[in-house]
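Sequence only, no structure available. Ideas?
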Amino acid sequence: MMNKSRVGSEYIPLVEEDMLKARFTLNFAKVAWFTVSLPFFAFIFCIIWSIAYNFEHSTSTHCKVYNFLPSVSAAIGHYRPQRDIWKIAVAAQALIRFLVLIMYRRYYKEHIYKWAQNICNVATITYAIENISLVTLSFWTSDENYAFHKLSFITFLITSFIHMLIAYFIMRNCRNITKESCEATSLKWKRRTMILNLLCIIFACYFFYRHNKYCEPIVYSMFALSEYGVVLSNMGFHSTAAWDFANSRLMVSGMGFRII
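Reply:
I predicted one. Tokens follow.
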């Protein structure tokens, strides 16, 4: 007979017994690292493969000057197999990231001051929009639909940075619990990756302007390198979920899954 604990007038199963019946459990930190690793390794593959096999075309611009790096759009959206691998990775991570979104939503309700709940709503909304816009810019490339790709990319940049800023503010100033060492590490890397992301966006805008204004050699490659920094710093920020939920576990059973 199932052992149960009483809470008020309701009975709930004991967590220990649930764990015994679970098919397997995963530390949520591993789930977070796996989620980030999907686009990370796909991104690295797309850059290296484009340089190795599509170098001349992927680095060419209207200026007809020498460059040595492809832009993000060229690397992930213009050629195969890069385009297919990137789409698969982004689609897979997008599904898991909605699970991470649920985790943050629950965390905000349980551990963030009530006066900051509206700020938390903005954080979760921008997180969701960022995730969706990453999918749309990946599946509708600049070759296929330039206007929609551009809109998705701009939306991704804006919402991702807004989310970083708000999430950092929440975790730094609005928690009603004592910070643990893993959460302090998370906060430190949130700050570092957020600052790096902003700097890379500024550099990308500067080099893009110079490229179109003066058509100088290598400037477009510096723009591409700044883009890489934007993408990788964004991944770095989201990897901090591994520290935020270091003590949480994902339990999978025949009835589905739950987070404990």
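The longest helix spans residues 181-214.
Hope that gets you unstuck.
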